[in-house]
């Protein structure tokens, strides 16, 4: 009702209401579908963005949906890893089956122990290689091999770089696991940090859009908030005096850092019902009139409120449930 376009006469407010009402409609389509709602309840919006749900059998239980989501996530990660590292491998085996054919010779039966043919593996070669993109144009190639012939074996690991080639024999291929721990895993962690930074940069436009949506929502809430405050004042109920959401700097050693908060007094007052404010155990960034002012950083909600004529203050970490006022026991 708050965002229904017909509730607003001002052309600009009506336009903003239509945009937010469409978001409400999208939410309704998800929450009214039993399978989509189960996916959202477990994994949120990111669960709905995973490819593959369209071919999943409907009427799944939450446990089955969780297992299916994890399977789809693993498949996506495997595809990303293969695209990134382009793994290649080869195994060849040499078999000596001379004894199997010699038994058909006329004099074979006269040889001792000729009742059962002797077949053995006399050589084996295993090779594996992966690629590690360094830049958009340069790629490092790490390869290793293990060979054995008539009881003698050896192995090597090579690291091929665009600027130079380094060759070294370091023993059997089992030492590749050590190289993986020293080189590959640190590289993957560094890549993940780069991906997080890219995510922050790429989300800038999305944050700007959500900020605009939040500001529009606050404008549309003004009339409803005015009526709620009048009702709460008449019963000496819950009045939100000030509220902020984001990153607060409370440690003296971090005073040089700048607080990153937004004013959410109006959105919280709009959520007050019967002199109570109840927020569930979830991030506040999705609440009407809220957005994320500091992507990837810890956030809190600070509220200064009045109840029964007495002022109170509360600081709640993002993601935790909040009830104002607290229930008396």
From TrEMBL:
<dbReference type="InterPro" id="IPR052243">
    <property type="entry name" value="Mito_inner_membrane_organizer"/>
</dbReference>
<keyword id="KW-1133">Transmembrane helix</keyword>
<keyword id="KW-0143">Chaperone</keyword>
<dbReference type="InterPro" id="IPR036869">
    <property type="entry name" value="J_dom_sf"/>
</dbReference>
<dbReference type="InterPro" id="IPR018253">
    <property type="entry name" value="DnaJ_domain_CS"/>
</dbReference>
<keyword id="KW-0812">Transmembrane</keyword>
<feature type="domain" description="J">
    <location>
        <begin position="1"/>
        <end position="44"/>
    </location>
</feature>
<keyword id="KW-0472">Membrane</keyword>
<protein>
    <submittedName>
        <fullName>DnaJ (Hsp40) homolog, subfamily C, member 11a</fullName>
    </submittedName>
</protein>
<dbReference type="InterPro" id="IPR024586">
    <property type="entry name" value="DnaJ-like_C11_C"/>
</dbReference>
<dbReference type="InterPro" id="IPR001623">
    <property type="entry name" value="DnaJ_domain"/>
</dbReference>
<dbReference type="GO" id="GO:0005739">
    <property type="term" value="C:mitochondrion"/>
</dbReference>
<dbReference type="Pfam" id="PF11875">
    <property type="entry name" value="DnaJ-like_C11_C"/>
</dbReference>
<dbReference type="GO" id="GO:0042407">
    <property type="term" value="P:cristae formation"/>
</dbReference>
<feature type="transmembrane region" description="Helical">
    <location>
        <begin position="159"/>
        <end position="179"/>
    </location>
</feature>
<dbReference type="Pfam" id="PF00226">
    <property type="entry name" value="DnaJ"/>
</dbReference>
């Amino acid at each position: 009702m708050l965002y229904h376009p017909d509730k607003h006469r001002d052309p600009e407010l009506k336009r903003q209401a239509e945009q937010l009402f469409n978001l409400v409609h999208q939410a309704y389509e998800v929450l009214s579908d039993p399978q989509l709602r189960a996916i959202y309840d477990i994994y949120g919006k990111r669960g709905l963005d995973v490819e593959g749900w369209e071919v999943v059998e409907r009427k799944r239980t939450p446990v089955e949906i969780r297992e299916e989501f994890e399977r789809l996530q693993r498949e996506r990660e495997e595809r990303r890893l293969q695209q990134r590292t382009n793994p290649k491998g080869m195994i060849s085996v040499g078999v000596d089956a001379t004894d199997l054919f010699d038994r058909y010779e006329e004099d074979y039966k006269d040889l001792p122990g000729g009742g059962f043919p002797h077949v053995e593996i006399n050589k084996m070669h295993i090779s594996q290689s992966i690629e590690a993109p360094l830049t958009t144009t340069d790629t490092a190639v790490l390869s290793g091999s293990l060979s054995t012939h008539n009881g003698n074996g050896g192995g090597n690991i090579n690291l091929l770089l665009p600027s130079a080639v380094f060759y070294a024999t370091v023993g059997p291929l089992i030492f590749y696991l050590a190289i993986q721990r020293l080189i590959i895993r640190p590289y993957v962690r560094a890549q993940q940090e780069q991906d997080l930074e890219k995510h922050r940069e790429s989300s800038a436009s999305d944050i700007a859009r959500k900020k605009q949506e939040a500001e529009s929502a606050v404008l549309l809430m003004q009339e409803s908030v005015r009526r709620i405050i009048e009702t709460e004042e008449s019963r000496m109920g819950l009045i939100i005096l000030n509220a902020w959401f984001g990153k607060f700097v409370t440690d003296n050693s971090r005073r040089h850092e700048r607080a990153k908060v937004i004013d959410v007094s109006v959105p919280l007052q709009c959520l007050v019902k019967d002199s109570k404010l109840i927020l569930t155990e979830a991030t506040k960034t999705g609440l009407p009139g809220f957005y994320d002012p500091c992507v990837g950083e810890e956030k809190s909600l600070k509220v200064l409120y009045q109840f029964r004529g007495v002022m109170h203050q509360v600081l709640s970490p993002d993601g935790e449930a909040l009830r104002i006022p607290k229930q008396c026991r």
